[in-house]
Design goal:
This protein is mainly alpha-helical. 38% of the residues lie in helices and 5% in strands. Strands 1-2 form a two-stranded antiparallel ribbon. It is globular, with a radius of gyration of 12 Å.
Length: 78
């Protein structure tokens, strides 16, 4: 958990099936697969054109923002 105003703490492994847009990007991985935060950010950045931003759930938006804040200096490189 994070304190108010702080970015959420990133888990060591991110379950793809908890984030629908991320799971779509990693379609070739088996159900229940996990990725590291760096792998998740790379998937988002390399495949941004396939993201349906209108359908991205709040929890996934928060994950993406935390990834960008902690691993990419606050900038999504797309």
């Amino acid at each position: 958990p994070s304190r108010q105003g702080e970015a959420p703490t990133l888990p060591a492994r991110i379950r793809l099936d908890e984030y629908p847009q991320l799971e779509r990007l990693a379609w070739q991985r088996k159900g229940g697969a996990t990725v590291t935060p760096a792998e998740a950010l790379s998937l988002y950045e390399r495949n941004w054109r396939h993201i349906d931003r209108a359908r991205m759930e709040p929890a996934e938006r928060a994950l993406l923002q935390a990834l960008v804040d902690k691993l990419s200096g606050g900038r999504l490189l797309v």
